[in-house]
Amino acid sequence: MTAGEHAAMLASVRKHLRIARHTVQTLEELEATLLRVGDHMEKSVGVGEALEGRVRAEVAATGELHELVLHPDLLSMNPNDLSKAVLGAIQQATAEARTRFDTTEPDTNA
Q: Which of 24, 36, 47, 56 could form a disulfide with 106 if both were Cys (CB 3.0 to 4.6 A apart)?
């Protein structure tokens, strides 16, 4: 290998190493952003109610149901009507959580 070929190969290796370092840095920044967004989704919680507050649901923007509260007097209610009320409260809470997620910024101090 000539000195010129050796220098060209060394320059190529250095160039690829710079690209690899930049790629790693970009991936680390992307990972941090994704973690912040995931945390923001988890904190973006909505509340929905039905039957004059006797059914209450709390849902995160991730879709995770955090809480479902049913008033004891609902036990005698028609099961189909009750399930519709529960579903309505969950849907309302999910919509609110998504709105909160869409209208607020994630914490950038992470």
A: 36
User: Whole-model pTM?
Assistant: 0.67
Q: Distance of CA 86 to CAs 21, 29, 68, 93, Å? A: 51, 40, 8, 11
- When pLDDT is cut at 50, 70 and 90, the band that residue 110 belongs to is very low
Count of CB atoms situated within 10 Å of the CB of 60: 20
Query: In this structure, how many other beta carbons lie within 10 angstroms of the beta carbon of residue 48?
Result: 22
Buried b (16+ CB within 10 A) or exposed e, 63-101: eeeeeeebeeeeeebeeeebeebbebbbebbbebbbebb
pLDDT higher than 80, residue 33 = yes
Q: How far apart are CA 48 and CA 54, in angstroms?
A: 11
